[in-house]
Amino acid sequence: MIRNLDVSRAFKNSCLPEVVLPVCISACKGNKLIDIEGNSYIDFTSGYGVANTGWGRKELIEIAVNQLQKLNYSPPWFPTVEALELSTLLNKITGNNFAKSARTTGGSEAIEIIYRASYIFNKKPATLSLYNSYHGGSKFTINLSDNKNFRFPPAPTKNKYYKIPPPYCYRCPLDKTRENCDIECTSFIESSLKKHPDIGVFFIEPVIGSGGVIVIPEKYLQQAKEICNLYGVTFAFDE
Q1: I need a labelling partner for 141 at 20 to 30 A (CA). Which of 110, 126, 134, 174 fits?
Q2: Can you spell out the DSSP letters for the chain?
Q3: Which pLDDT score, from 0 to 100, does residue 96 have?
């Protein structure tokens, strides 16, 4: 019988993951993950966020199989009905704030497309983001993330990445409480934009996921948008 620990040790010796848990997952069902020894675990992370509808949903499997049998790939220069329907839906649910959407292979590429679009618009090359944030694994997005906090190896770059404390109410950087807080932490945004006029985009996770599931207050987001508009900076949500 293959054991969890055997696979975990072999995996650690042959791959470069962030963390290796002593569990080898071999199946899934509903909201549970099942390892090779038959143990089951409730998946509180929803498959790191990409399986929030649950595992093994028959109706979703049927849709995926039907699509694979019909058309499993199309080069980006060929329009498809499916791509049109998806982009139309995305544009609609954003409240008509966006005229177009872009298809990407994942989160890191999406962030880089936002950065390129912002630079085309305002010609400002630097970025602003929050400590505790995680934006992806590419060279650009690793530097945009709090790589020191996550212990990621540095990736040399000519880009300038500035970071400020997040509005973390549990560990407030200004020692405020919920009773006397007036979102003074937005002052970090304005002071950074004043000090670094080359900042062209402020990336933020509305809910900081990997950095502690920190929910950003709505008032902070509203004020951050107003400050970014004042300084001609793109305000970009990651997720």
Answers
A1: 174
A2: ---HHHHHHHHHHH---S---S--EEEEEBTEEEETTS-EEE-TTTTTTT-TT-BS-HHHHHHHHHHHHH-S---TTS--HHHHHHHHHHHHHTTT--S-----SSHHHHHHHHHHHHHHHH---EEEEETT----SSHHHHHHS-TTTTTPPP---SS-EEEE----GGG-TT---TTT---GGGHHHHHHHHH-TTEEEEEE-SEETTTT-EEPPHHHHHHHHHHHHHHT-EEEE--
A3: 64
The two structure tokens encoding residue 84: 């049109």
A 10 A CB-CB count for 135 gives 27
- φ/ψ of 130, rounded to 5, equals -105, 145
The burial class, CB within 10 Å (0-12 / 13-18 / 19+), for 173 is middle
**What does the block give as tokens for 98?**
């966006």
* The residue to which tokens 């004042």 are assigned: 230
Using one digit for the tens of pLDDT, what is the confidence trace for 144-200?
999 888 878 777 888 899 999 999 888 888 888 877 888 899 999 999 999 999 999
Q: 10 Å Cβ neighbour count for 110?
A: 19
pLDDT score, position 169: 85
Q: How confident is the model at residue 222 (pLDDT cuts 50, 70, 90)?
A: very high
Stretch among 12-21, 69-78, 93-102 having the lowest mean pLDDT: 93-102
pLDDT at 70 over 90: yes
pTM of the model: 0.84
Q: Which residue has the tokens 């909201």?
A: 31
